[in-house]
């Protein structure tokens, strides 16, 4: 019976985390259903069994309370809530930490479409093509207002926030198409901000990528890899005047192996160089200056679009 209901009402479990999410969801659902039955039917039972008609007045003892029972119920409920919290935290932590070596794809949300930027330079609109059985990390930002990337079949949802990067990861377990929704009201065409994830067998994905790179797939032209675009921007915007890429000292910190590095700031704090720190350093360069350097970098606010920022970050990631 339950299996039949689940078959009818349950969305496909198309990612590795989907069964985890559903297990916890089921636990909370059944806990609620059982509590509902106990409370409602218990109350009805007492109402009828101990009504004035059935039990003459002054025949039952007048009870004011029972400390042990009350404490017991409170303790039981506290433990139950903590179990749900801990369980949720374990799953949440897993959903927040992408496995090492996950394939990275940049997503830019705009009113009202999704742009997917691959490291090989390919840009897709409202379509995300990924391989089956490989972890994929999405690094996302918004060009205008809040959006939210939501794939029900994968049980993942993550807000996109202007001027900052958020990320989410998944590993697809079902070949085929899965719906992407925007789950944050973002204006007139919010409900039309739809896209698809297309999951391909690893071999098909490789062919898709290669086909694209060879320029053989009709309607696609070979594009420059993101990191290469970033390298050109790095020179064109004058970054290379102060930041070396080979570890040599300069006016600013060298960008050799910069990504993922832990830097000490002038304030004594330390920071790990990630997408958000790089972005902030380009937009508000002197907010967090690395120790040993003067706060002299000019801002690039308004001079770089989201795609160019993604390209610069991809280039810095390549300097390993
Ligand atoms: Cu984008 Cu709603």
Structural commentary:
This protein is α+β, with helices and mostly antiparallel strands. It is 36% helix and 20% strand. Strands 3-2-1-5-8 form a 5-stranded mixed β-sheet, with helices on one face. It has a 5-stranded mixed β-sheet with strand order 4-10-9-6-7. A two-stranded antiparallel sheet has the order 11-12. The longest helix has 32 residues, at 18-49. The chain is elongated. The protein starts with a helix and ends with a helix.
Describe this protein with a few key phrases:
single chain; alpha+beta; five-stranded mixed sheet; 7 helices; binds dinuclear copper ion
* Strand line-up across the major sheet: 3-2-1-5-8
Total number of helices: 7
* Backbone structural class: alpha+beta
The whole-angstrom Rg is 27 Å
DSSP helix fraction: 25-40%
Question: Gap between N and C termini, in Å?
Answer: 56 Å
Low-confidence runs of at least 5 consecutive residues: none
**β-strand amount:** 15-25%
Largest sheet: 5 strands, mixed
What's the count of strands? 12
SSE string, helix = H, strand = E?
HHHEEEEEEEEEEHHEEHH
Layout of strands and helices, then pairs:
Layout: H1 2-9, H2 18-49, H3 67-96, E1 103-110, E2 113-117, E3 123-125, E4 127-131, E5 135-142, E6 147-151, E7 156-160, E8 166-171, E9 176-182, E10 195-200, H4 202-213, H5 226-236, E11 262-264, E12 270-272, H6 275-283, H7 306-318
Parallel strand pairs: 1-5, 4-10
Antiparallel strand pairs: 1-2, 2-3, 5-8, 6-7, 6-9, 9-10, 11-12
Q: TL;DR of this structure?
A:
With 320 residues, this protein is an alpha+beta fold. It has seven helices and twelve strands. It has helices spanning 2-9, 18-49, 67-96, 202-213, 226-236, 275-283, 306-318; strands at residues 103-110, 113-117, 123-125, 127-131, 135-142, 147-151, 156-160, 166-171, 176-182, 195-200, 262-264, 270-272.
